[in-house]
């Protein structure tokens, strides 16, 4: 437990180092990371609720896009969460091809591109 807390702290410090120049502070970075995490969770729960075939990539892109709009902390949170999810699913036997497609959608959203590129026809407008 202490090791994992130490590792998370080190990742935060390393992640903040490049972004803490000028007016930015560790507190704004952590706030953005928290908000980005919330955006990612909202996209995940929306995906589960929608339960719509073919919408997986849309929700990946949307969660990453929303998180990245928060700032550098949101981008960092989106990357960490997306990479962890894909690694876990790979360990559980999910195919490399699907993982690569998910990561493509993740990067698309994080880069600020429109997540609607992946939106399937017929997905309710609520999402």
Can you describe this structure?
- With about 130 residues, the protein is mainly alpha-helical.
- The chain has one domain: Topoisomerase I, Chain A, domain 4 (Orthogonal Bundle).
- It has helices spanning about 1-15, 25-50, 55-70, 70-90, 95-110.
- Helix 2 (about 25-50) crosses helix 4 (about 70-90), helix 3 packs antiparallel against helix 4 and helix 4 (about 70-90) runs antiparallel to helix 5 (about 95-110).
- The longest helix is centred in the first third of the chain and has 25 residues, at about 25-50.
- It is globular.
In short:
The chain is mainly α and 127 residues long. The protein has 5 helices and no strands. The model has no long low-confidence stretch (mean pLDDT 88).
Features of this protein?
single chain; mainly alpha; 127 residues; Topoisomerase I, Chain A, domain 4; globular
Topology overview:
Layout: H1 2-17, H2 26-50, H3 56-68, H4 72-91, H5 96-110
Helix pairs in contact: 2-3, 2-4, 3-4, 3-5, 4-5
What is the H-and-E element order?
HHHHH
Class based on secondary structure composition and strand pairing: mainly alpha
Radius of gyration, in angstroms, nearest whole number: 15 Å
Number of helical regions: 5
- Net shape: globular
CATH-defined fold name: Topoisomerase I, Chain A, domain 4
| Amount of beta strand | under 5%
Helix content: over 70%
Mean pLDDT: 88
CATH architecture: Orthogonal Bundle
Looking at this structure, what is the CATH superfamily?
Serum amyloid A protein
């Amino acid at each position: 437990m202490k090791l994992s807390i130490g590792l998370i702290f080190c990742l935060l410090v390393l992640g903040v180092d490049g972004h803490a120049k000028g007016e930015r502070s560790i507190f704004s970075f952590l706030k953005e990371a928290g908000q980005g995490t919330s955006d990612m969770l909202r996209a995940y729960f929306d995906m589960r609720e929608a339960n719509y075939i073919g919408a997986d990539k849309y929700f990946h892109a949307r969660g990453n896009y929303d998180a990245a709009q928060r700032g550098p902390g949101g981008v960092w949170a989106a990357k960490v969460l997306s990479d962890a999810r894909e690694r876990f699913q790979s360990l559980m036997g999910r195919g490399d091809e699907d993982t690569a497609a998910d990561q493509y959608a993740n990067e698309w959203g994080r880069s600020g591109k429109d997540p609607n590129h992946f939106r399937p026809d017929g997905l309710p407008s609520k999402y």
